[in-house]
Predict the 3D structure of the following.
Amino acid sequence: MNDNQVTEILKSRLDEKNINKLMAIQNKRVHAFLADAIELCNPASVWVSSDSPEDVAYNRRMAVEVKEERPLKVQGHTIHFDGMHDQGRDREVTKYLVPRNQTLSKALNQKEREDGLDEVRGFLKDSMKDRIMIVRFMTLGPANSEFSIPCLECTDSFYVSHSLNLLYRLGYEEFKRLGSENQFFAILHSAGTLDERMVSKEVDKRRIYIDYTEDTVYSVNTQYAGNTVGLKKLALRLSIRKADREGWLTEHMFLMGVHGKNGRKTYFAGAFPSACGKTSTAMLPGEKILGDDIAYFRAVDGRCMAANAESGIFGIIQNVNAEDDPTIWDVLNKPGEVIFSNVLIADGKPYWLGMGVDPPETGENFSGAWRKGNKDKNGNEIPCAHKNARYAVSLKDLANCDPELNNPHGVELSGIMYGGRDAKAYVPVQQSLSWEHGIIAYGASLETETTFATIGKEGVPEINLMSIQDFVAIPLGKYVNNNLEFGKKLKKQPLIFGVNYFLRDKQGKFVNGIRDKHVWAKWMEQRTHGEVNALVTPTGLIPEYEVLVTIFKQLLDKNYTREDYEAQFTLRVPENIAKIDRVIEFHRTEVDRSPELLFEVLSAQKERLQKARSEYGDYISPFSFPKER
Ligand code: GTP
Ligand code: SPV
Ligand code: MN
């Protein structure tokens, strides 16, 4: 298409108001992308959001009018349902489009680019013929900042577009300023054919393809936000490539401020795989949340500066209750803008698993009209709400939102955590022996179990490097190496911690309570200020018993016993050696270009474990370990 054809298409398909809004953005790539999308999807009309209060309100209204959302009793709350088989990220059909002459790691799901484009564009053909195409300009990262990445999303779902408003920064003005600059991410989404409940019907034609050669993503026949709100996990894949080219880091991490002595606040980031603890950590009562899913890191004058790519939360609602999560509970119960998804609705009120309130026996949920005891096609009982039911809210609506959220310079990080669902090996909290040791032994060795956040079997153990493996669009080893190299740019490196909320005892019971993570956070905060000692173990530095006694008492009013400490911090040597063997095997066979240092660091840890075993046996009480000098 030449420039004239592009203009021709836009002028013939947009009405005067919308063409004016669009032409205020003088960018050839924007115009060409939209002309192509219009030709392909053939929408009934095109609406461009200018982010004005009227446009934001129109979007909110339309989501209800087209029945993708329904108002609930509490003012500002709505419910959206995704289809029965569209309740999480779909790994199987999410693929990188790779040109014939290129290769990506074999651990990555990929497809030959031309074939992939033909297939997905085939499914997008005429997909919007009865619907409005919505054109959105957004940014990832704070505005007017080194961290910002402009994004264009084109969708036929007012729910998706409404979610963008809650979760990201509006970017129409930013695009106007951009002028002809063509460095932005573009996303084209269509929910495809919908059934009478307004949910995507053609599940087998669901595709999410990432065309990284053009910084473009295609998504079709799905509505679940993780597959459709392109600025989330789809743009994440593109930003990892951008960060790799430009020498900074994109991480699947929360950001939070932890309070300490004399009113000070210390910033932490934390990587946990989906449904393994990011939001629950960042929302700890009394602390400040800056982000709960995606963080950008840049080395600035030797300091590690971090910003949230997002400005809202698309959070798991299961187990959110008044006692454990008072802040989010409050937001989910008072007037204000909240989109609930895939919870049970009865009498205009939402109910979910683990809310601490008995749900009614009938209502409407992701399966349609629901009654307790209803079974699915396979004879399994349908729960009242899906485990991956979620809520979407803006961070600014939270009482504990950190005031630095939109600081264009980001915040300076003092600590980084890595944690997964590791039932057997790692202790609940430990500090790495160095930056390299932390990146390798905690980040690149992160083991977890699959969860309900992705479609497929739950509880399958796997390695999920840095908790970001699904989204790494460059060779995995190079990604590890970028993290190692990043440390060298820092004069003051954040301390690195390994945490494990999911360690179990021999009977299979978790050895920690849900609030214990707060104690670990306070201990880490004190470590970053050099205020408390630690004990040296073969896998890292662990808290001293007496220090934990004090924090447990002050914070949770709990008497922390020697038995608790031993149950949680005993070093399990056989499990730790087996873990290292699995991780080494994984990096040898599944990862291309794992740095040699990784094997050295892991082998050294294995030797330390073997040495300790020869002295103390297989299970070593934490009281045996020496104090750090
Ligand atoms: P995504 O939004 O998918 O990226 O997930 P996330 O990392 O933000 O997960 P989140 O913090 O929402 O945790 C999800 C699940 O972990 C919920 O079902 C929680 O109940 C559970 N969970 C959180 N903390 C703990 C804990 O300390 N112990 C146990 N056993 N479960 C926990
Ligand atoms: C995750 O699965 O890591 C999430 C939710 O944060 S999603 O939007 O599906 O990515
Ligand atoms: Mn996530």
Remarks:
- The domain at 314-397 is CATH 2.170.8.10 (Phosphoenolpyruvate Carboxykinase; domain 2).
- The first strand starts at residue 45 and ends at 48.
- The pocket of sulfopyruvate (ligand 2) is lined by residues 89, 225-226, 232-233, 274, 293, 314, 453 (CB under 6 Å).
